[in-house]
């Protein structure tokens, strides 16, 4: 019987694009046979800033009942898929803040030997998608994690063109997540689950 794989999808989203991809990633991982926790990270922006942007306010309301990520989610997971919009070519402060709370687990070696992957979005095609994912993956190296990017492992990856992770160009919020991004999400989630299962069955990875 195949090993049970626990996948945590941990993300930050302001106006909802990353939230939509995170939801699709969680669905695809579930369909691939994983147990999934979908978790947003804590918002750091003041309420006035959120209220000033209708899309931001709408996403905050739509996800208000979604559990916030906790360090225990990292312990539980065999694989973690992080999501963040680009912020000047880097991950968002909100996701970075969550990662910065994991020092205790890192010191105990409890973040090592897990599978990690990531996804992102930007306003334009050259708005920092690759550098954001590469910056995120620097953290994986420090964790002692096992990086599983989608690569060009499926014909569809030659269409969306990003081997680092699922990415979406959102414009000014007027370019919704479509079939190309959803297909990339499916390829990535399935690969993460498949590799994590193989590693777990081989005795390398393990959750709590």
TrEMBL record:
<dbReference type="Pfam" id="PF03358">
    <property type="entry name" value="FMN_red"/>
</dbReference>
<protein>
    <submittedName>
        <fullName>NAD(P)H:quinone oxidoreductase</fullName>
        <ecNumber>1.6.5.2</ecNumber>
    </submittedName>
</protein>
<dbReference type="GO" id="GO:0010181">
    <property type="term" value="F:FMN binding"/>
</dbReference>
<comment type="similarity">
    <text>Belongs to the WrbA family.</text>
</comment>
<dbReference type="InterPro" id="IPR008254">
    <property type="entry name" value="Flavodoxin/NO_synth"/>
</dbReference>
<dbReference type="InterPro" id="IPR005025">
    <property type="entry name" value="FMN_Rdtase-like_dom"/>
</dbReference>
<feature type="domain" description="Flavodoxin-like">
    <location>
        <begin position="7"/>
        <end position="200"/>
    </location>
</feature>
<dbReference type="InterPro" id="IPR010089">
    <property type="entry name" value="Flavoprotein_WrbA-like"/>
</dbReference>
<dbReference type="GO" id="GO:0003955">
    <property type="term" value="F:NAD(P)H dehydrogenase (quinone) activity"/>
</dbReference>
<dbReference type="InterPro" id="IPR029039">
    <property type="entry name" value="Flavoprotein-like_sf"/>
</dbReference>
<dbReference type="GO" id="GO:0016020">
    <property type="term" value="C:membrane"/>
</dbReference>
<keyword id="KW-0560">Oxidoreductase</keyword>
């Amino acid at each position: 019987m195949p090993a049970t794989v626990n996948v945590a999808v941990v993300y930050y989203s302001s106006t909802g694009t990353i939230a939509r991809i995170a939801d699709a990633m969680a669905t695809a991982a579930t369909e691939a046979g994983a147990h999934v926790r979908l978790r947003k990270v804590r918002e750091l922006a003041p309420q006035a800033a959120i209220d000033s942007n209708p899309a931001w306010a709408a996403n905050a309301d739509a996800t208000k009942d979604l559990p916030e990520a906790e360090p225990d989610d990292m312990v539980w997971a065999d694989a973690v898929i992080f999501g963040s919009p680009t912020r000047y070519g880097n991950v968002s402060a909100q996701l970075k803040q969550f990662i910065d709370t994991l020092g205790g687990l890192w010191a105990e070696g409890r973040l090592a030997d897990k599978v990690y992957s990531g996804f992102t979005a930007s306003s334009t095609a050259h708005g920092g998608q690759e550098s954001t994912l590469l910056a995120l993956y620097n953290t994986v190296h420090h964790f002692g994690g096992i990086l599983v990017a989608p690569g060009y492992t499926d014909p569809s990856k030659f269409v969306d063109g990003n081997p680092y992770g699922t990415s979406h160009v959102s414009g000014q919020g007027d370019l919704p997540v479509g079939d190309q991004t959803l297909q990339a999400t499916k390829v990535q989630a399935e690969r993460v689950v498949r590799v994590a299962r193989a590693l777990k069955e081989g005795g390398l990875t393990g959750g709590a």
